[in-house]
Amino acid sequence: MGELPLDINIQEPRWDQSTFLGRARHFFTVTDPRNLLLSGAQLEASRNIVQNYRAGVVTPGLTEDQLWRAKYVYDSAFHPDTGEKVVLIGRMSAQVPMNMTITGCMLTFYRQLGTAYVSATTGAVATALGLKSLTKHLPPLVGRFVPFAAVAAANCINIPLMRQRELQVGIPVTDEAGQRLGHSVTAAKQGIFQVVISRICMAIPAMAIPPVIMDTLEKKDFLKRRPWLGGPLQVGLVGFCLVFATPLCCALFPQRSSIQVSRLEPELRARIHQQTPGDEVVYYNKGL
């Protein structure tokens, strides 16, 4: 076996991002919660492999599969711009366990939603409590779906608030080759909308399937005799749903999304037509 060539583009995902299947495979790797179990030494080893390869140095005996594995381990733990290690709960691989805990507890303790969710946004709390009051005379199963409405409202409010600077100054847009052309608020709005949709869709399986299952199980003698199993069982069901929902919903829209030049702000549109008259589409990073 010869030495690994240096022309593998590890700056981009391994799979074709123009297809949903390619994006899904990419995000299944990015959000793999098993990466949280890797030791500091394993993370450093992956960083060395990636940095050496980018510098033109191939680790002896390295295969292409090992290179891609190192790239995704490196990306899962280190900031893409600063190169610093990201705090554990802030990594994409922490999405499933963190959301599993939060969502599972919300579904388990939904009757105390006002207290449990007081630290969330005012809009989400108002939505949840308003719907809770409207559904208190309906079957208990209906009430179990109140947390989903709260999560949907929270995403609609929190994501734009967290990215409000992008809504003020815009996000970078580039040509097909990656050359930066300027900043666009219109592209920022489209990207944020895509992320909100992805996050809401991500919550649907985890917050719709477990309540139906738990409503059925709680009528059985097994759980009636062991009520303490309700919480752990619900959290486990949520986790199972999120393992699949998180990467599949992240893959709904390309990470490198596109927008027609004709939809951009007039000043930016005029600048692009002046610099690159043939460009009809520009690209931007939608975020996560």
From TrEMBL:
Pfam families: SFXNs. Belongs to the sideroflexin family. It comes from Rousettus aegyptiacus (Egyptian fruit bat). One of its GO terms (biological process) is one-carbon metabolic process. Its main location: mitochondrion. PANTHER family: SIDEROFLEXIN (PTHR11153), SIDEROFLEXIN-3 (PTHR11153:SF20). Keywords: Amino-acid transport, Membrane, Mitochondrion, One-carbon metabolism, Transmembrane, Transmembrane helix, Transport. Mitochondrial serine transporter that mediates transport of serine into mitochondria, an important step of the one-carbon metabolism pathway. Mitochondrial serine is converted to glycine and formate, which then exits to the cytosol where it is used to generate the charged folates that serve as one-carbon donors. GO terms for cellular component: mitochondrial inner membrane. This is Sideroflexin-3. One of its GO terms (molecular function) is monoatomic ion transmembrane transporter activity. It is found in: Mitochondrion membrane. The keyword Mitochondrion applies. It comes from the Eukaryota. It is a multi-pass membrane protein. The keyword Transmembrane applies. InterPro entries: Mtc.
